Amino acid sequence: MFRLSNLISAVVEEKPERILNGSICIWNFTNRCNLSCLHCYSKSTLDEVDTLTTEQIKKTILQMKANGVKFIIFSGGEPLTRKDLFEIADFCKDNGIITYLSSNGLYFTKGNVQRIVDTFDYVGISIDGDEETHDHFRGLKGAFRETLKAVKLANSTGSKVGIRFTITKDTLGSLEYIFKLAEDENIPKIYISHLVYSGRGLDNLKMDLSKEQRRKSVDFILDKAFQYYREGRDLEIVTGNMEQDAILFLDRFATEYPDLKDKMRERLVTWGGNSAGRKLLNINSEGDVRPDPFFPLTAGNIIERDFGDIWQQGELLDQLRIHPRKQISGICADCEQIDICNGGSRARAYAVTGDLWSEDPSCYLTEEERRRD
In this model, does residue 38 exceed pLDDT 60? Predict the structure, then answer.
């Protein structure tokens, strides 16, 4: 995740660095879902049966704690379809692990919303455009209205709530709409996710943006981030799955605050770019541990092995933990900014070329931008 808004305020106002003291796990607790989203990396359906038991999950959480995992993002499928979800989240809290919820919002009600926001430190709800776009993308007529109700309901509690938006050719026309919605409803956070080629996202690879479209959309997002900072608007912008955004961001920041460019670059190098297998991991609904949710290879399975044994050793993870990843070929091989982006998505590279260490095919940077001034 690339936290644009936090970085601007932190460097300009000389705030301490926001350092992730531990790892983040995106855990797909279930593959069951009430929607059929075009970009779904887990190909979820309502017919799925949960593989992992409550006790297996709790056992693994204790092992994760012992191995430095500090955050768990509850994902799916739709995580709220698991009856033991609150029990699991409470167990995390009892063990000092911060929890986030990623949901489509369709199970939010006036009766359970307070429990949801009290249980999770942050709640992200997916909206993929205006009503027509969202319903098409999510595969259910009327989904938009119910999801928007959930956003408003959660936001009315005063808790930290955000909109999650995946940018594709199908949703690109709604990018401005999402920002306008957040502004009008005083939603405190927008998370913009770039498409990664996995699950239905791989089946629908043709819906990914062209490099020209991606660049234009990132320019718009950057415009908004700097606008909100100038206006003093408390609306956080985060992008995901496109670490190259940080390099375009650095150029823009240098235009706005030229005397602070070196300090910002230092922050970005410390942030480290793509963190799959380093500070980020995924556990899917069947217990497979992967470097990120889209990764084509697994490091092990928590039913078969202790999490610590999986996370602490293995050639794949050792290779991913090299920073910067100078073993990547193509345009990354001589890129002078790789210490910022760390080569981008290995899952996208593998999906297109079959080579885990080829360049990220979605990199939109020019040759000039890949050079340091």
Answer: no
